[in-house]
């Protein structure tokens, strides 16, 4: 099983469920605060890899949910600058095992990466905060 550094927004119920799934799968966690970490553009890029910029963003951020901000309309450099100044824009959680990093909690991706006991996942997709309906739109 893996030892995971897990960056979360403290108090986030989605992050709580994700941590429960990881621990039920036998992984150990070192939990860190996403909002107080001193991020750099280079460090954040380690988590995002080749994913499109729009996938770097937290879909439950109030401005994104309200349609006031379109993550697909800015460059990678602009996105990183914004996330360094306002970490609530960063998709959660950020995960690190050894030197490998991942952003977000796509069950299949996390399972293929480190393994999950899929019975621990439950019915609600843990990728998103409970305030986002299953269609991906703000709820």
Question: Could you characterize what this model shows?
Answer:
- With 139 residues, this protein is of the alpha+beta class.
- It has a single domain (3-120), classed as Glutaredoxin (3-Layer(aba) Sandwich).
- Helices cover 30% and strands 14% of the residues.
- It has five helices and four strands; from the N terminus they run βαβαααββα.
- It has helices spanning 13-24, 41-48, 62-65, 76-85, 107-114, and strands spanning 3-8, 28-33, 94-97, 100-103.
- It has a four-stranded mixed β-sheet with strand order 2-1-3-4.
- Helix 1 (13-24) links the parallel strand 1 (3-8) and strand 2.
- 28% of the residues are buried.
Describe the secondary-structure layout.
Blueprint: E1 3-8, H1 13-24, E2 28-33, H2 41-48, H3 62-65, H4 76-85, E3 94-97, E4 100-103, H5 107-114
Parallel strand pairs: 1-2
Antiparallel strand pairs: 1-3, 3-4
Write the element-wise H/E pattern from the N-terminal end onward.
Answer: EHEHHHEEH
**Low-confidence segments, ≥5 residues, pLDDT <50?**
132-139
Mean pLDDT: 90
Query: Which sheet architecture does the biggest sheet show?
Result: 4 strands, mixed
How many structural domains are formed by the residues? 1
Structural class: alpha+beta
Fraction of helical residues: 25-40%
* Total beta strand runs: 4
CATH superfamily: Glutaredoxin
Q: What is CATH's topology name?
A: Glutaredoxin
- Please state roughly what percent of the residues sit in beta strands, choosing from under 5%, 5-15%, 15-25%, 25-35%, 35-45% or over 45%: 5-15%
Instruction: Tell me, briefly, the overall form.
Output: globular
CATH class: Alpha Beta
Report the CATH architecture: 3-Layer(aba) Sandwich
How many angstroms does the end-to-end distance come to? 35 Å
């Amino acid at each position: 099983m893996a030892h995971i550094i897990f960056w979360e927004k403290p108090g986030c119920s989605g992050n709580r469920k994700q941590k429960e799934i990881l621990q039920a799968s036998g992984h150990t966690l070192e939990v860190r605060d996403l909002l107080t970490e001193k991020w750099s553009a280079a460090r954040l890029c380690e988590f995002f890899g080749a994913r499109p910029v729009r996938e770097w963003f937290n879909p439950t951020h109030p401005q994104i949910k309200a349609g006031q901000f379109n993550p697909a309309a800015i460059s990678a450099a602009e996105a990183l600058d914004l996330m360094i100044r306002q970490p609530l824009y960063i998709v959660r959680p950020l995960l690190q095992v050894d030197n490998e990093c991942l952003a977000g909690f796509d069950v299949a991706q996390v399972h293929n990466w480190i393994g999950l006991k899929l019975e621990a996942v439950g019915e609600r997709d843990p990728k998103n905060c409970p305030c986002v309906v299953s269609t991906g739109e703000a709820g």
